[in-house]
Write a structure and sequence with these properties.
two-stranded antiparallel sheet, globular
């Protein structure tokens, strides 16, 4: 992939090369049997437009994902609204948040939250600089906590660097989550947060999404995802999320600039194991490493209109 960096500045080249070694989180395909024991889950998600997270199934374009994260940024317009800007193969694209939502096919209206903090109490400290455009949450943290989690009857502890400390009353762990929300939590972790690593505790944003689902309150998923996309570029080792969602953006760019993208921009099959109630066993291969998925040339007949 390094040969693609010839036209970059020195700084851009280093950023791009650092991204090459990052892992992707594609998102998870959800098999029908995963939802079979919860017949009302789809309707609950659909009430706030989150059913889009249940039907995610796209190939991915690795080169597009890398170039997107090399350049993506949030622009604050003079009227206070937000736009998303990025550069792919020297083609600069700027999209309003509303258009970004339309292209990704995710909810773009409702309460606006972005925090990567753990305690639910951090929700009330977050507010967009233009709350009249992007309304913040107003619920008391205790209301959110009590709706989702069992009452903590004794202190919980956390050990970091050998020091044992008592958890904040609003720092929740997944074992305390009420059973009815367990699958909701898995779906949001995989397809709304696009989270890797240890998932023993939900962050505050995920908790608020769960709460919005319980009361049917619209949540601006586009606002959250845009801020999360930018935040991962500020770390040198965070996994690059939303690879399948970004395929929809890739198709949009390709349909608007059909001659701008080189043949390196090819789709490959996703490899993350789908969410299913059936047990899946990974077979450890001996000798040779498994072959990577064969790239699939982009099919212009599948392009969506700009």
């Amino acid at each position: 992939m390094y040969h693609r960096t010839g036209g970059f500045t020195g700084h851009e080249r280093e950023v791009y090369k650092s991204l090459v070694f990052r892992h992707f989180h594609e998102g998870r395909v959800i098999k029908p049997d995963f939802l079979k024991d919860e017949p009302n889950l789809r309707n609950t998600f659909a009430a706030i437009g989150f059913d889009c997270l249940l039907d995610l199934d796209e190939q991915i374009c690795p080169i597009f994902v890398l170039q997107f994260y090399k350049s993506v940024c949030i622009i604050r317009n003079l009227n206070g609204t937000i736009s998303i800007a990025f550069v792919i193969d020297n083609v600069e694209t700027t999209l309003t948040l509303e258009n970004f939502a339309r292209i990704l096919k995710i909810p773009g209206e409702g309460v606006c939250v972005y925090t990567s903090e753990w305690p639910i109490s951090s929700i009330i400290r977050y507010s967009d600089p233009h709350p009249n455009i992007y309304p913040p949450p107003h619920e008391e943290p205790s209301l959110i906590r009590d709706a989702l989690f069992h009452t903590r009857t004794e202190p919980k502890y956390r050990t970091m660097k050998g020091d044992k400390t008592i958890l904040d009353p609003f720092q929740m762990i997944n074992t305390e989550l009420k059973e009815v929300f367990k699958k909701w939590d898995i779906i949001l972790s995989e397809n709304a947060i696009s989270l890797t690593g240890h998932k023993d505790h939900p962050n505050a944003s995920l908790c608020y999404m769960l709460y919005c689902l319980t009361i049917g309150k619209p949540f601006n998923l586009t606002y959250y995802i845009a801020h999360r996309m930018v935040s991962v570029t500020q770390s040198s080792d965070m996994t690059l999320p939303y690879a399948m969602l970004l395929t929809r953006l890739y198709k949009h760019v390709r349909s608007n600039h059909p001659y701008a993208l080189s043949k390196d921009f090819q789709l490959v099959d996703h490899v993350m194991i789908p969410l299913s109630n059936k047990r899946v066993f990974r077979l450890k291969t001996k000798g040779k490493r498994p072959r990577l998925p064969t790239p699939t040339p982009y099919d212009s007949s599948s392009s969506e209109s700009p």
